[in-house]
């Protein structure tokens, strides 16, 4: 028999309700068999004896989805090739039927109406051990013979190592156990150690995660495009084929069981309503910050296989995209074709994501973050809503700074000074300046259409400002998350036009921009211009005029003498 845990299933979802078991062992048989090894006690005598020990043994296993639940158990032990779940608690109570009611299923039969709790028996709590087994010893003889109600309790384990961090979200349905129980295969035999093997589907750790440009924090110049990624693990059982005929529960949006639905062996497990496909379903919703501008038709859904796989676009028929401008909300939803493609295990897809492109307005300063929500439902399970932890939200950020222009001589503020900025000192000295697309160009270059150099001009108050600048994230504490005090970048400022009567600043000056430099009215850079000097005189204007008049008179006299001489000769 298999007690050692195998590799925990990579993907699993909420809890199942069926339990299975096979194989019986005649009581008193001399040969040690598998049933004896697990404590199975049976008897070929149809009359309950007074010498056999009575007990209930519960074995807890995990499965991937409803297709692996198997058939209902028979009260005897079978080897199950599944991973066990230790630490699960069960409450055991003895019950009494009301009147002539035959107790078969506590889900269908009501407490107090059709059965009551036997106060003569103290309820017991038993817990599965490292082998996934919970055992209740009811003693020898007929004293504790009767019908027992077994209820699986909510998974409250503090150590989830054995199930890779996953819990049982929905316990198995309660069930009645007759002790001793008539053998399901030999109706003339009794089972004194009743073995039940409920199976659970664990919660699916879809691990939702949001990034910006595939990072937890990034910055591009305001007005330029940047991408958000909404990623998750593909839920197990998103698209299942029934391994056997049976029924599964149908849950509404509030998680209430409203009916059951048939499973047909070899057919997809799909529950439909009047509108078509109801379960399974899968969608991602992102309510964007109101400062973000969604680029129309940019959203798409991608999948990949394994951690080293490459993200691949799904076909447009595999999903739908809706965008609500009033709430700035984007939603992508897998179609039935997408559910089949993504959820079919043989396709190997392990991860799914939505990518979308946004911008902020040019010159916008600040820090933005927003989360997203995954909604999905697997047939036979409650609907799930999953959101990444708030502290893991990615952040987009830009910054700005102010310049004050003053005169050295009068200390007054100066208007009409113009400035440009560069990424480095070398760029500044080479007149290679930053443009509105966040790139650097030579000052005399022809810029791309719609692109212009960033130029700040001092106003009547001597103020000039640069805003929406991309910043760097250092992540000094290596926590993978953006902290405001870890964001900054150095820029170099060049005065490219001086106010009338003043000298240009002769060398670039640096300024460090962070997320606080634009939040107050302080000046990050004070640039002082020297007044123009008075150069020596180069000659008076009156002397120049006299010289010109004299030269003109000489010219006129020379011409007159020449004309008179020619007249006399004639």
What report would you give on this structure?
With 570 residues, the chain is mostly beta strands. Helices cover 8% and strands 35% of the residues. The protein is elongated, with a radius of gyration of 41 Å. Mean pLDDT is 85; it is low at 1-37.
Spell out the blueprint of helices and strands.
Blueprint: H1 34-37, E1 42-43, E2 53-59, E3 61-62, E4 89-97, E5 115-117, E6 124-127, E7 133-140, E8 146-152, E9 175-179, E10 181-182, E11 190-191, E12 193-196, E13 199-200, E14 209-212, E15 217-218, E16 226-233, E17 246-251, E18 257-263, E19 271-273, E20 276-279, E21 281-287, E22 293-294, E23 300-304, E24 312-313, E25 319-324, E26 329-334, H2 336-343, E27 351-359, E28 366-368, E29 373-377, E30 384-386, E31 395-407, E32 418-422, H3 425-429, E33 432-434, E34 440-442, E35 455-457, E36 463-470, E37 472-473, E38 487-497, E39 509-514, E40 525-529, H4 541-569
Parallel strand pairs: 2-12, 3-13, 15-31, 31-40
Antiparallel strand pairs: 1-11, 2-7, 4-5, 4-6, 4-8, 8-9, 10-11, 14-16, 16-27, 17-18, 19-20, 21-26, 21-29, 22-27, 23-24, 23-27, 25-26, 28-31, 29-30, 31-36, 32-35, 32-38, 33-34, 37-38, 38-39
């Amino acid at each position: 028999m298999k007690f050692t845990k195998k590799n925990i299933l990579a993907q699993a979802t909420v809890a199942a309700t069926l339990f299975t078991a096979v194989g019986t062992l005649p009581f008193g048989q001399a040969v040690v068999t598998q049933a004896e090894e697990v404590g199975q006690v049976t008897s070929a005598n149809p009359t309950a004896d007074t010498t056999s020990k009575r007990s209930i043994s519960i074995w807890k296993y995990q499965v991937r989805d409803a297709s692996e639940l198997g058939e209902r158990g028979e009260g005897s032990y079978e080897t199950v090739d599944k991973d066990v779940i230790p630490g699960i608690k069960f409450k055991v109570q003895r019950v009494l039927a009301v009147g002539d009611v035959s107790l078969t299923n506590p889900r269908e039969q009501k407490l107090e109406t059709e059965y009551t709790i036997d106060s003569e028996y103290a309820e017991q709590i038993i817990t599965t051990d490292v082998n996934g087994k919970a055992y209740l010893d009811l003693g020898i003889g007929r004293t504790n013979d009767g019908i027992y109600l077994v209820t699986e309790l909510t998974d409250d384990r503090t150590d989830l190592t054995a199930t890779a961090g996953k819990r049982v979200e929905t316990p198995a349905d309660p069930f009645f156990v007759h002790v001793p129980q008539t053998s399901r295969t030999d109706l003339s035999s009794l089972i004194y150690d009743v073995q039940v093997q409920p199976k659970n589907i664990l919660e699916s750790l879809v691990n939702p995660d949001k990034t910006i440009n595939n990072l937890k924090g990034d910055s591009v110049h305001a007005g330029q495009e940047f991408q958000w990624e909404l990623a998750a693990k593909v839920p197990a059982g998103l698209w299942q084929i029934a391994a056997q005929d049976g029924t599964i529960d149908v849950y509404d949006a509030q998680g209430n069981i409203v009916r059951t639905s048939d499973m047909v062996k070899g057919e997809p497990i799909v529950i439909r309503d009047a509108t078509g496909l109801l379960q399974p379903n899968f969608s991602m919703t992102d309510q964007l910050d109101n400062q973000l501008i969604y680029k129309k038709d940019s959203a798409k859904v991608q999948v990949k296989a394994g951690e080293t796989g490459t993200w691949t676009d799904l076909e447009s028929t595999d999903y739908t995209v809706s965008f609500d401008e009033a709430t700035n909300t984007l939603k992508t939803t897998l179609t039935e074709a997408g559910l089949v493609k993504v959820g079919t295990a043989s396709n190997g897809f392990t991860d799914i994501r939505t990518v979308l492109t946004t911008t902020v307005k040019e010159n916008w300063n600040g820090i933005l973050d927003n989360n997203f929500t995954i909604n999905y439902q697997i047939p036979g399970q409650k609907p799930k809503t999953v959101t990444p932890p708030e502290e893991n939200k990615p952040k987009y950020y830009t910054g700005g700074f102010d310049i004050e222009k003053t005169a050295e001589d009068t200390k007054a503020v100066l208007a009409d000074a113009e400035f440009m900025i560069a990424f480095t000192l070398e760029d500044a000295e080479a007149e290679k300046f930053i443009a509105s697309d966040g790139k650097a160009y030579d000052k005399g270059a022809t810029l791309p259409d719609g692109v212009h150099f960033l130029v700040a001009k001092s106003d009547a108050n001597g103020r000039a400002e640069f805003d929406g600048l991309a910043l760097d994230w250092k992540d000094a504490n290596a926590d993978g998350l953006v902290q405001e005090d870890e964001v900054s970048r150095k820029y170099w400022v060049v005065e490219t036009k001086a106010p009338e009567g003043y000298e240009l600043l002769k060398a670039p000056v640096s300024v460090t921009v962070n997320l606080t430099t634009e939040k107050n009215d302080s000046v990050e850079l004070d640039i002082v211009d020297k007044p123009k000097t008075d150069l020596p005189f180069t000659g008076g204007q009156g002397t120049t005029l006299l010289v010109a008049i004299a030269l003109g008179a000489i010219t006129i006299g020379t011409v007159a003498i020449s004309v008179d001489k020619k007249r006399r000769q004639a």
